[in-house]
Amino acid sequence: MKRRKFIQLSSLATLPLLLKSCDWIGAGSDFEVTVFTDIHTGHLLFESQHYPLEKTETTETLIVGGGIAGLSAASQLKGKDFMLCELSDDLGGTSSWHEYNGVTFAQGAHYDLAYPANYGDEVLGLLESLDIVEYQKWKDAWSFKDSQYIVTHRRKSQCFDHGVLREEVLPNGTLREDFYKIMSTYEGFMTMPTRLIDSAYHDLNRVSFIDFLKGKLNLSPEFIRGLDYHMLDDWGGTASQVSALAGVHYFACRPYYSQVVDLFSPPQGNGYFIEKMAAVHKEGLFTKHLVKSIVEKDDGFEVDVIDIERKAIKRINADKVIYAGQKHALKYILPDQYSLFEANQYAPWLVLNFIINDELPRPGYWQNEMLTEDQTFMGFVDSDMQQTTVAGKRVLTAYYCLPPESREDLRNVEANKQVIAEKTLEYLNQYFKRDIRSLVEHVYIKVMGHAMPIPGPGYLLNDKNAIRKHKNLTFAGVDNGRLPLLFEAVDSGLEAVKFRKG
Ligand SMILES: Cc1cc2nc3c(=O)[nH]c(=O)nc-3n(C[C@H](O)[C@H](O)[C@H](O)COP(=O)(O)OP(=O)(O)OC[C@H]3O[C@@H](n4cnc5c(N)ncnc54)[C@H](O)[C@@H]3O)c2cc1C
After folding, report:
1. What's the CA-to-centroid distance between 146 and ligand 1, angstroms?
2. Which domains does the chain have, with CATH numbers?
3. Which of 438, 357, 353, 388 is nearest to 102 (CA)?
């Protein structure tokens, strides 16, 4: 099939639709596309039945998962006996990053914002001790020490709505003004971590964001579309799916209505925080190690870990376990605790990094929010507004937030990688009003099946550590009743260490 024909065929197709079939393989592209996926984990679990049991080791604490939560737990165990196992080739989880010929780029979480003074002391204390933030008295807020990674305020974001550029995703007008008036009344009360939010606001966790707003405003379909975009972009679900607490938190967790809030985005995105936390340890962090099963034994746990590179099983006897991996896998790893998290809903995400030879107009905008016929497409981040690592190269990072029911179809990404890149290129071409194909050098696609827990009604303020079965096994991670945010992930790791007996 010729490329032109393919483009015509697919111009109306959304990503979920494209993923349904493998019939799109024929389209050829001039650039290479590489896929990163953990979709083969199931196959590995099956194959590992035949791996030799290599050796038994002991450790005081075993941490499952090398994302932000696992590493923040590890940061508390400096000088102690622990092992952290991460199944991927690299640390980071949904805050991972990659390098191509010296160009560094984020493959998931890409930023954080300055922290108000009333945010939780423990996380701020850790970030300060890692030399990441400092208190700024004149602002009464914490900001980032590596100020070269703060994105210029007026170039932070713009919205591209079906070909028309405007400042914000929410349409301009009195409805938006009234909406912001309501949201601003919550400013100062939507703290992080969310577990510190005053009980006076806990009722917001019982209703959906849209039902909460419908009682107060006459919402237009266009306005709801904008709200849905924002909620999908940060929480993985629409305004009807997430709780009012999550929705209000999004708009009121920082002094957006009275101040300029610093936005921090290093080239490697939130991988920056991972690097800082990992640097605390010389040893104890193991990548390509997949935790296969956890069984309570005597006073501790017998943990079987697949050493992926060596194709062997390591049996580890641990006194304590901190489980910071995604909780859906407990079904296989620790079945007696799966029911605690059974109700979790996860949005899958696809992230595409286009490495381009930069001839595009500048300066660009950092975040380019795009409203198109495909609600799963979230637009792209343009590295032009970040500190670049190689002159003449630019990275355009496009994001898709998929509905949970698309997860099964992610197995078709590898077969459709060229098509997915082509489809995304169409959006970029629309934005730049020219065909940028000849500038594209390489495309990376990161596939994340259980990427974002959707904070529906009842999900937040519900830490399962309080009702866990095994005293010495605690849970960390944003999918333990947290918003999918860096601050929450860090706090969950610190809490998991505190929760343990002894
Ligand atoms: C596309 C995307 C963009 C985002 N952008 C932002 C952002 O800009 N700012 C922000 O604050 N937040 C953002 N987030 C939210 C982000 O998820 C959190 O900030 C945080 O990184 C979550 O960390 P975590 O440790 O809880 O989970 P994860 O990052 O999911 O880490 C879990 C880790 O456990 C590993 N693991 C799982 N099972 C096993 C096992 N059996 N054995 C060994 N290892 C295992 C996984 O491989 C993974 O590395 C984004 C999320 C997504 C998906």
Report:
1. 23
2. 3-30+346-453 (no CATH), 48-97+269-344+459-499 (3.50.50.60), 112-150+152-264 (no CATH)
3. 388
pLDDT reported for residue 28: 60
Q: Which of 343, 277, 287, 270 is nearest to 64 (CA)?
A: 287
pTM (2 d.p.): 0.97
By the 8 A CB rule, do 314 and 305 touch? Answer: yes
Using the mean position of ligand 1's atoms as its centre, give its distance from the Cα of residue 231 in Å.
18
Token pair, residue 466, equals 């309080």
* Residues 6+ away with beta carbon under 8 Å from 153: 260, 263
Structure confidence at residue 184 (pLDDT): 97
Rounded CA separation 86/88 (Å): 6
> In the chain, which stretches have pLDDT less than 50?
1-2, 4-5, 7, 502
User: Ligand 1: residues whose CB is within 6 Å?
Assistant: 64-70, 85-88, 93-95, 108-112, 270, 290-291, 324-326, 329, 333, 349, 351, 399, 448, 451-452, 477-478, 484-486, 489
Element (H, E) at 367: strand 367-371
For a mutational test of ligand 1's pocket, the pick from 45, 94, 309, i.e. the residue with the most ligand atoms closer than 8 A to its C-beta, is 94
Structural contact between residues 135 and 119, judged by C-beta atoms closer than 8 angstroms: no
Q: Whose C-alpha lies nearest to ligand 1, atom 5?
A: 109
- The pLDDT score that the predictor gives to residue 27 is 52
Contacts of 92 (CB under 8 A, 6+ apart): 66, 67, 107, 108, 271, 274
Task: Give pLDDT, residue 464.
Answer: 97
Q: Which residue has the tokens 């900001």?
A: 143
